[in-house]
Every structure is written in structure tokens, then in C-alpha cells.
Amino acid sequence: MILVSACLLGHDCKYNGGNNDNAAVHRYLEGKDWVCFCPERSGGLPAPRLPSEIRDGRVYSKAGEDVTAEFRLGAERALAFCKAHGVDRAILKARSPSCGVHAVYDGTFTGKVTPGMGITAALLAENGVALLDEEDVAALIDKEKTSKEV
Q1: Given this model, what pLDDT does residue 50 score?
Q2: What is the DSSP string of the chain?
Q3: Where does residue 16 rank: exposed (0-12), middle (13-18), buried (19+ CB within 10 A)?
Q4: How far is CA 68 from CA 36, 54, 93, 138, 143, in A?
Q5: What residues of the chain score a pLDDT lower than 70?
Q6: 29 near 21, Cβ under 8 Å?
Q7: Are residues 59 and 53 in contact, defined by beta-carbon separation less than 8 angstroms?
């Protein structure tokens, strides 16, 4: 079973009230068992909301409000959801303070990224859930397409 960031499947839960609907993710999921989840909404954050970034191990909104508790609650609920649904893999939103798998925005709200994981991604990884982001999925699809063409 695969957990997928809800925003990647077109759910309007992104900080700006929109989504990150991703055709490659939809394609990858064809014929697979999956469930979607938004840890930020599950942690009590509204959509829309101010963007948030990780700085010094805490999560802050652009206005400087510490929203770490909401992000941690969302991560804990995501882990419980994974356990309840037999999830062993997840496709998460790249660079998100919740879901970033390889890197996250650096906390300066300047668009700069730094290596690291979002709060939910880190908790899932610590508990044995294999992680990909939508960019990894696109690369997998490209690799599959190339190998079929050869």
C-alpha cells in the first residue's frame, strides 16, 4: 500500500489553498493500491494558510508563528494512518516542511533549499516507510519508458 500526499492527487490542501496535481504520480499509481493523506491539514492547519519552513529544527510560518506542534501532530497522525492501512511506501511532496524527502526550504522564505527531510517524511522513514517524492516518480517513469523503447 502506498501513501500519497493529497496535494499531488489534486486535493486543495496546499498552503495557498491550491494543489500540486501531478500527472506522473497519477500514472505511477495506476493498478496499485494507494491512499492519500495531508499531514498539514490533519495536524489542524487550514488551507489556505501562510507558507511555513523549517529553521533550527522548528517549523515557522512566514509571519514567524511557531507551528511545529501542528506539523508534529500531522506527522504522528500520518504514521498512525500508515500503520492502520498497511502502508510500506509513500510518495510525498518535494521540499515541503512536512513531506520533503531529499531537501526542504531553508527557513528564510527566499526559495533556497537545503538537504533534509520534512517532519512527516522523517518520522515515516524512521519507522520503515520507503519514501519517494514526485520528482523521483517522474524519473522512474522516464526510466521505464526508456527501457521499453530500447
Answers
A1: 98
A2: -EEEEGGGGT-S-STTS-----HHHHHHHTTS-EEEE-HHHHTT--SS---EEEETTEEEETTS-B-HHHHHHHHHHHHHHHHHHT--EEEE-TB-TTT-SSEEE-SSSSS-EEE---HHHHHHHHTT-EEEEHHHHHHHHHHHHHHHH-
A3: exposed
A4: 22, 9, 18, 30, 37
A5: 147-150
A6: no
A7: yes
Q: How far apart are alpha carbons 142 and 150 in whole angstroms?
A: 13
Residue 140 phi, psi dihedral angles, 5° rounding: -65, -45
Confidence (pTM)? 0.94
Cα–Cα distance for residue pair 111/108, rounded to 1 Å: 8
